[in-house]
Amino acid sequence: MRKFLLILLLVLCPLSVFAQEEQAVPLEQLILQQHFTQKELERTLTLIKEEEKRTQNDIARLEMDMQRQKLIIDAMRRHAGEVARAYYTGERATLLTLLFEAENFNQLLIMMDMIQYLYERDFTRLAMFQEERARLAIMQTDQQNRLAQLTQLREKYELQLAEMIAIQQQKEENVQKLEDPTRVEALMDHLIIDWQQRGLPAFQRFFGTLAGVMGQIPELATPERIQSNGLFLHTLTINQDEFNQFLSSKDEMFKQSQFSFDDNKLVVQGTYDHMEIKLIGAYELVSPTHLQFHIESLYFDGFELPRSTVEEMEKLYDLGFYPELISPNIQVEQLSMMDEVLKLQLKLNLPFGWGKP
């Protein structure tokens, strides 16, 4: 892609002019990056609006459900009140006196069955009333959560819109500095078309496949890679080459990529579908049973993707590590990725509290 852009620059620009404007190439590259960021922000703004619309529909649906639930509760409240009043005034207690008026054993059994039926019906009504009230409370909580989500979406939209407008303005100012803006405009159009038709679908396939393979990482937890530091503490060591060989064995696409461990970062570089891909990220120990992967930066053919696209990828594709896939009793105490080696400090928690300090 980058080679194509340079060739297109040479074709569109006479050699003499191009030689005079060698120093303008960085500016054109900056404009391309700004245009790329602007269009990606516009795309994710559309996604936010769609999510906002879905959330509004959910809130409207919840409101209708809550109104129906309130009608049900109002109808049941009268019955529950009658039951409560009967017990408060002693009406139900007087039923017990009927047992002493039974003339024979058969009448006693019949009265006992009747009294038991009345008590069970009373408590069933009260229980159903409480269940419906609890259901309404859940709906109200859900509605409040959706409203909070809607507020967050609107705030996110406004912030991202402001960012997009600022970048667009900077880009337009830089375009005005060029003697011949038409050539860079052609490059901008081609860049966006290439990303939308080829780049984004390829990234989605790459991340989707990688997320699936990450769930198979526990296969690398073999005895020769695990060092015991005591009865309950162990260290799982996976070197960089082994990790790359493992990924390549799972899918052909990873044969063109290189996964590197250094400075507690995971760096992925390679080619896929004739485009350059680069990813830099790190793992966060969210809990002893969950290592969450955060993407710090993402590149397509040398162009950095905006944070909005990175967040979209993180939301859609889980690249985290779950030690319970190795064993339900395994927990991670610490993780490091240094000098081409991934090390996981593991702790074995046995049932009934064994292994705890």
Automatic annotation (TrEMBL):
Alphabetized, the UniProt keywords read:
Coiled coil, Signal
Please list which residues make up the signal peptide: 1-19
Provide the coiled-coil residue spans. 38-65, 140-174
Q: Which organism is it from?
A: Brevibacillus panacihumi
Q: What is this protein called?
A: Uncharacterized protein
